[in-house]
Design a protein that fits this description.
With 466 residues, the protein is of the alpha/beta class. The chain contains 21 helices and five strands. The protein is globular, with a radius of gyration of 23 Å. The termini are far apart. The structure holds flavin-adenine dinucleotide. The site of flavin-adenine dinucleotide has 27 residues, from helix 9, helix 11, helix 14 and helix 16. This is Deoxyribodipyrimidine photo-lyase.
Length: 466
């Protein structure tokens, strides 16, 4: 009987354009796949919302793999032990996986690779999750990029490999039942909102390109509109890869040149993800260390009451509370509002960006090892190519600009449903009668702001400029 191959799945939960899986299926013998929910101490474990997504995604993938003759196993524990065990159990002579790019993950994988090779296995790794490997893109001086725009210019010059076309199939097997344990009670809002898995990812992309891309440059900043792709959790778990997105947009532009500028804008956002991965790969643990060292000297405030109010969407600043409630209920938040909530925490409340990053890590379905810390550091001002420390978002004027009629606020903060547009982003300035009426109607009073926006802005400027 031909020898077997083990595919170790991580952030690549798809059949199409999955180089490790495609390589395994080119061999004749049995192909096994495993996902390990890793508990190794040196690795960052998944957050709660991401785990909910993961389980649904694996359940969908298990069926699709079985149709191609691949049995998926789900294990929880230390991958450093489980992968060699699986190799023994399946008598695999080959082990394939797609790469990850965080420093701890890379060191971990390199050690596993060395141990497996010492035991005689053939081990190979591939690129499933980036357009260009981080070591294949560098400045003229040969150094990594620290600024987005030249990075994007360089990326556009690079040849992007076509997604893998045909994939071999082995004889179908029946899909194994996977045991993920009990689903948390709060998962309902996430499962209601999202269709999860590779087929859903393809549908979401195609609907976005057909219906929303043309208006994306304008609509992407309006939180009430469904004007962005919502591809982020699908990309996070690799239910779709960036090469598939890249070529779908390029083909669309070729067939419909009027879509060129919207298509380019969308691809430039996908390139921000690439840039985050470039930073993740080249910098030292961006979830723990500020990229600009002086930010690790800042005396951040310790204010657990304010942190809790922020997490629960009870700060009294409407657009911030709307965003934090959207996050809690659906596992996702609009990009503009992510910036505003992060700015309130790190600037007005002067709370360490890592506290916010951790909360997002636990509550976002798209919690991404590169995008999350890189974006938090961008807002805090501590990152590469970050907003300068003195750029502090004003959530009132931002709300008035991007949610002019307060539709987004009213959707997530029902206490403000009856507050007129003029006051919806600054209810503290309205006649108390108006607020009393609104809270009587909704049955809950909306809190007063936990921080004075003007005074806290001054405080942030004086602390951050030191
Ligand atoms: C504080 C903060 C935390 C964030 N945390 C995450 C995170 O954990 N995971 C995550 O995927 N994104 C994160 N982002 C970036 C961005 O908000 C999301 O990628 C975007 O809102 C996802 O929605 P979408 O797929 O509809 O985006 P679209 O506008 O449709 O963009 C398409 C894709 O491009 C990428 N992209 C878009 N904007 C950015 C950006 N600013 N930076 C990096 N990549 C981008 C994403 O992969 C996204 O799915 C964060 C932003 C901020 C300000």
């Amino acid at each position: 009987m031909a020898s077997s191959t083990l595919v170790w799945l991580r952030n690549d939960l798809r059949i199409a354009d999955n180089p490790a899986l495609a390589a395994a299926l080119r061999h004749e013998g049995p192909v096994h796949a495993v996902y390990v929910l890793e508990t190794d101490r040196e690795l960052r474990g998944l957050g709660g919302a991401a785990k909910v997504w993961l389980h649904e995604s694996l359940a969908a993938l298990s069926g699709a793999l079985a149709e191609r003759g691949v049995r998926l196993s789900f294990r929880e524990g230390e991958s450093g032990k489980i992968i060699p065990e699986m190799v023994r159990e399946t008598k695999a002579e080959r082990v394939y996986w797609n790469r990850r790019y965080d420093p701890a993950g890379r060191t971990h994988d390199a050690a596993i690779k060395t141990a497996l090779r010492a035991d005689g296995a053939e081990v190979a790794s591939f690129n499933a999750s980036l357009l260009v490997e981080p070591w294949d893109i560098a400045t003229k001086q040969g150094t990594p990029y620290g600024v987005f725009t030249p990075f994007w210019t360089a990326l556009r010059e690079k040849p992007i490999p076509d997604p893998i076309g045909r994939i071999e199939k082995h004889e179908a097997i029946s899909a194994p039942a996977l045991d993920f344990g009990k689903r948390p009670a709060w998962a309902g809002g996430i499962l209601e909102r999202w269709a999860i898995g590779e087929d859903a990812a393809k549908r979401v992309l195609s609907d976005f390109l057909d219906d929303l891309l043309a208006d994306y440059p304008n609509d992407r900043d309006l939180p009430r509109k469904d004007g962005t792709s919502r591809m982020s959790p699908h990309l996070r778990f690799g239910e779709i890869g960036p090469r598939q997105i890249w070529f779908a947009v390029r083909h669309l532009i070729d067939s419909k040149p009027s879509m060129a500028s919207a298509g380019e804008k969308f691809l430039s956002e996908v390139a921000w993800r690439e840039f985050s991965y470039h930073l993740l790969y080249h910098r030292d643990d961006i979830a723990r260390h500020s990229m600009q060292e002086r930010f690790d000297e800042i005396e951040w405030r310790s204010d657990s009451k304010a942190l809790k109010a922020w997490q629960k969407g009870q700060t009294g600043i409407p657009i911030v509370d709307a965003g934090m409630r959207q996050l809690w209920q659906t596992g996702w938040m609009h990009n503009r509002v992510r910036m505003l909530t992060a700015s309130l925490l790190t600037k007005n409340l002067l709370i360490d960006w890592r506290k916010g990053e951790n909360w997002f890590w636990d509550t976002l379905v798209d919690a991404d090892p590169a995008n999350n810390p890189a974006s938090w550091q961008w807002v805090a001002g501590s990152g590469a190519d970050a907003a300068p420390y003195f750029r502090i978002f004003n959530p009132v004027t931002q709300g008035e600009k991007f949610d002019p009629h307060g539709d987004y606020v009213r959707q997530w903060v029902p206490e403000l449903s009856d507050v007129p547009d003029k006051w919806v982003h600054k209810p503290w300035a309205a006649d108390p009668e108006i607020l009393n009426k609104a809270s009587l109607k909704s049955g809950t009073a909306y809190p007063a702001p936990i921080v004075d926006l003007k005074a806290s802005r001054e405080r942030a400027l004086s602390v951050l400029k030191r």
